[in-house]
Design goal:
- The structure holds two protein chains of two kinds.
- Chain A has no helices and twelve strands.
- In chain A, strand 10 and strand 11 form a beta hairpin.
- The radius of gyration of chain A is 13 Å and the shape is globular.
- Chain B is globular, with a radius of gyration of 13 Å.
- In chain B, strands 2, 4, 5, 6, 9, 10 and 11 form a seven-stranded mixed β-sheet that branches.
- Chain B is built from no helices and eleven strands.
- The chains are: A mainly beta, B mainly beta.
- Chains A and B meet through strand 5, strand 6, strand 10 and strand 11 of A and strand 5 and strand 10 of B.
Chain lengths: 113, 114
């Protein structure tokens, strides 16, 4: 079945540091890939997505590129801020559009000033 | 629209009692999902509906769990004879149909079984 493996945390960075959170997946066909974020005290919200190979999703300075050859969708940001402190979840949905999201375990990011 | 709404936000119950949670999705969304999340884990899929039809149920879902979505609008998730292992955050999400569509999540119902 479909599955997602993401880098375990917690990750602690200083403000303005470069961020990478690794995510790899197992799925048949061409799934859609997502990064969701959960800020303290808030619900899950979509950060970015990509629906086909080589697509790059981007939002709020975060980027991730759908790499079919390495089955990866790593999240990156060039300069993190304290306000980026949150839990980040990589997720996929199947290529048919009829399967629910499958999530990774999440990576907690803490950014210190 | 105010987004996905879940009630109650918190529920404490004694072991063996039944509990029911409600989810009101975004009105134009025909898909509705239930997930469970425990500390340090990602959301785990429980079941989902397209309109009023329950299309998929996780094999991990105990028969003490049942969900309904009458008339394809709000949904309820009932847990019968609760156990301490049922303590978790229960999340509801809704989406439009289609490939790669965004799922919008509610803030969840936190269940504590004592």
């Amino acid at each position: 079945g479909n599955s997602v493996t993401q880098m375990e945390g917690p990750v602690t960075l200083s403000e303005e540091a470069f961020l990478t959170i690794n995510c790899t997946y197992t799925a048949t066909g061409y799934p859609s890939l997502f990064w969701y974020v959960q800020y303290p005290g808030e619900g899950l919200q979509l950060l970015l997505k990509a629906t086909k190979a080589d697509d790059k999703g981007s939002n709020k300075g975060f980027e991730a590129t759908y790499r079919k050859e390495t089955t990866s969708f790593h999240l990156e940001k060039g300069s993190v801020q304290v306000s980026d402190s949150a839990v980040y979840f990589c997720a996929l949905s199947g290529s048919s559009g009829n399967t629910p999201l499958v999530f990774g375990k999440g990576t907690r990011l803490s950014v210190i000033a | 629209d105010t987004g996905v709404s879940q009630n109650p936000r918190h529920k404490i119950t004694k072991r063996g009692q039944n509990v029911t949670f409600r989810c009101d999705p975004i009105s134009e969304h025909n898909r509705l999902y239930w997930y469970r999340q425990t500390l340090g884990q990602g959301p785990e899929f429980l079941t989902y509906f397209q309109n009023e039809a329950q299309l998929e149920k996780s094999r991990l879902l105990s028969d003490r769990f049942s969900a309904e979505r009458p008339k394809g609008s709000f949904s309820t998730l009932e847990i019968q004879r609760t156990e301490q292992g049922d303590s978790a955050m229960y999340l509801c999400a809704s989406s439009e149909e289609g490939v790669g569509t965004e799922a919008f999540f509610g803030q969840g119902t936190r269940l504590t079984v004592v």
